[in-house]
Design a protein that fits this description.
The complex is a heterodimer of chains A (about 200) and B (about 375).
Chain A lengths: L6 H10 L5 E5 L5 H10 L2 E6 L2 H9 L4 E3 L14 E7 L8 H11 E9 L4 H10 L23 H10 L3 E9 L2 E3 L4 H7 L2 E7 L1
Helix pairs in contact in A: 1-2
Chain B lengths: L1 E4 L2 E4 L2 E4 L4 E2 L5 E2 L3 E7 L9 E5 L26 E2 L4 E2 L4 E5 L14 E2 L4 E2 L9 H15 L4 E6 L1 H12 L4 E7 L7 H15 L16 H15 L2 H7 L27 H14 L4 H13 L2 H5 L2 H5 L5 E7 L7 H13 L4 E6 L7 H4 L1 H17 L1
Parallel strand pairs in B: 7-10, 7-13, 8-9, 13-14, 14-15, 15-16
Antiparallel strand pairs in B: 1-2, 3-6, 4-5, 6-10, 11-12
Classes of the chains: A alpha/beta (about 200), B alpha/beta (about 375).
Chain lengths: ~200, ~375
């Protein structure tokens, strides 16, 4: 539904999560990440997925999944019911990203959000030189069929969190699936292809 | 008990008669209560591989296989129960019993009252879904089952919920399909129309009709109303459209031929007539009154204060399934159950299956259901 998820970042997210945590995985897809967290980190987990066929695929893995639309909110969950809420490569596809992030911060102690960085230098060059909507491995769609309706940059996310007093506990910048460290945010915004943020409020 | 005869799996309806009296929620007492049931597969030595399957409003204990070699149709959920199917008889011991107050073997209004030696008729006490569940518990104990999975659609989903709530130590899995924690007023209204049709039939005779003409007109109208609620606009459109019946040439549909009288003109009319007529041959009007009343009364929120309180002591893993075009037991009603379970930190999965078949979908859409249920049961086994 939301495009091919980068399997490399699954491992990074699994590394971040503390063992035995309770997880709410939003936009769980086929449940690959959730299954890894349960198998490798002994987590308990619940997935939310909008697409019936993906719900069935997750259920076939023996996962607990609830079919639902993130844009309708998470009101079936209590405040701070989970240790982590995860939104992996899905933020840019929801109708109301701000609302979804607020809901995640309400139901979980920590949230993990990953997204493709639209300020990545190759994306910038693509637009600058070709004058067309950028396409890449992470953004494989045409402008007219992309589910990525709210593309954003690392800088956008920092600004968003500052405005809403959201604490960024950790940030992981990645290029070609490898973790990279940058001396400042400007470089991070320029050179990272994909980012993972761990936030709380 | 079942054995394979010429590829048709044969199953025999069995009976278990309680050797003690059975007290209902109303305080009324029934004697010599019989439970009619069928079983498929074998109970393991630790007696924990049982799946209780519950039938819907007008169903019966014959859930799968054939009763006789000459039978044309197998049981009502044969697509789901059997070797390698969703409810795999190679792994599980599957039990289905006829509901209390039914007319397919279990004691009901058409049974002989041992005190009077006449059929109960309307002297049969009003009972609840919980009463029906407690009666099944007698059967489960008799069969020696220690742990079980409860599964059912529609009214059967109500029974599954009650099992998980009333016997939390026994129920390790609960599958609730196209069901609700309480009927919508709209659904109660349709049941009321059905009951009114029966009660106002001149042959009803206050429920005492067993040696006379049965209230067939009333019962068949009740069934016709029921069938409208089991379908949906899209299903009716797909199934019948506005097609006319050609009275002269059977089975041939020619559009535009009108009788200009009040006979059935449209295919949809004759379908409803057929459903009504075939129903009176297999169902008892009094049972219809009692069972619909039990379903109307079923209300977990009313009984436990809140839905969360209803489920708070359950230990089962839950699976809730709804169908997109079901307007009798809606997706939002299923979601209410899911929300209560999530808020009480229960293990629950939910899937809304896309289907144009209305409420009937739970008996038809077995492919998607099989995948979902197999995954759910696979995880339960690994616990």
């Amino acid at each position: 539904m939301f495009g091919k998820k980068n399997k490399l970042n699954y491992k990074k997210i699994v590394d971040i999560v503390n063992p035995n945590s309770s997880i709410l995985d939003l936009g769980t897809g086929e449940g690959t990440l959730l299954k890894m967290l349960i198998d490798e980190k002994k987590c308990t987990g619940l997935g939310i997925e909008i697409n019936q066929h993906l719900v069935i695929k997750s259920l076939e893995k023996g996962l607990s999944v609830i079919q639902g639309n993130l844009d309708e909110g998470l009101n079936m969950f209590e405040d701070k019911q989970f240790d982590y809420a995860i939104l992996n490569q899905t933020l840019q596809s929801v109708q109301k990203p701000d609302f979804v992030i607020c809901e995640m911060l309400r139901v979980a102690k920590k949230v993990i959000i990953s997204f493709p960085n639209f300020a990545y230098y190759k994306v910038r060059f693509y637009l600058f030189f070709k004058g067309k909507m950028p396409k890449s491995k992470m953004l494989p769609y045409e402008w007219y069929n992309t589910p990525n309706i709210h593309l954003l940059t690392v800088e956008d996310f920092f600004e968003f969190c500052k405005l809403r007093n959201i604490k960024i506990l950790n940030s992981i910048y990645m290029q070609s699936g490898k973790i990279c460290n940058y001396i400042n945010k400007t470089l991070a915004n320029m050179l990272s292809e994909e980012v993972i943020f761990i936030c709380s409020c | 008990m079942n054995n394979n005869v010429k590829n048709k799996k044969i199953v025999t309806l069995e009976n278990y008669i309680l050797n003690h009296s059975f007290k209902l929620e109303s305080g009324e007492i029934l004697e010599d209560v019989n439970i009619a049931y069928e079983t498929y597969g074998n109970l393991n030595s630790s007696k924990d591989n049982a799946i209780l399957v519950f039938h819907a409003l007008t169903g019966d204990a014959h859930a799968a296989f054939y009763n006789h070699e000459t039978d044309k149709k197998p049981g009502w959920w044969d697509d789901m129960i059997g070797s390698g199917k969703a409810f795999d008889t190679d792994k599980y011991f599957i039990v289905c019993s006829n509901i209390l107050g039914g007319c397919k073997g279990t004691t009901g209004p058409s049974s002989i009252n041992p005190r009077t030696n006449k059929p109960y008729g309307l002297s049969f006490p009003i009972y609840t879904i919980d009463d029906a569940v407690r009666l099944q518990k007698e059967l489960v104990d008799y069969l020696g089952i220690k742990k079980l999975i409860a599964a059912g659609g529609s009214m059967g989903g109500m029974m599954a919920q009650s099992w998980a709530i009333m016997y939390p130590d026994m129920v390790k899995g609960c599958i609730i399909i196209a069901s609700t924690s309480r009927l919508s007023p709209q659904a109660i209204a349709f049941n009321a129309v059905g009951r009114n049709a029966i009660l106002s039939d001149e042959d009803f005779n206050n429920g005492d009709y067993y040696e006379k003409e049965h209230p067939e007109k009333g019962l068949s109208i009740a069934r016709m109303v029921g069938h409208i609620t089991y379908l949906c606009e899209e299903a009716m459109k797909n199934k019948f459209g506005r097609q006319f019946l050609n009275q002269n040439k059977e089975n041939e549909i020619v559009s535009g031929i009108r009788n200009f009288d009040f006979q059935a003109d449209f295919k949809v009319e004759s379908y409803l007539h057929y459903q009504g007529q075939s129903f009176v041959n297999r169902f008892d009007a009094n049972s219809y009154l009692y069972i619909t009343k039990a379903v109307d009364y079923f209300d977990l929120t009313y009984k436990y204060g809140t839905l969360k309180d209803a489920f708070k002591n359950t230990q089962a893993k839950f699976l809730v399934i709804s169908f997109s075009s079901d307007w009798l037991f809606t997706t939002s009603q299923s979601k209410e159950i899911v929300e209560a379970l999530v808020k009480t930190n229960k293990n629950v999965s939910f899937c809304e299956i896309e289907s144009p078949c209305g409420h009937d979908a739970f008996l038809l859409e077995f492919e998607a259901q099989t995948k979902i249920i197999k995954g759910f049961l696979f995880d339960l086994e690994s616990v």
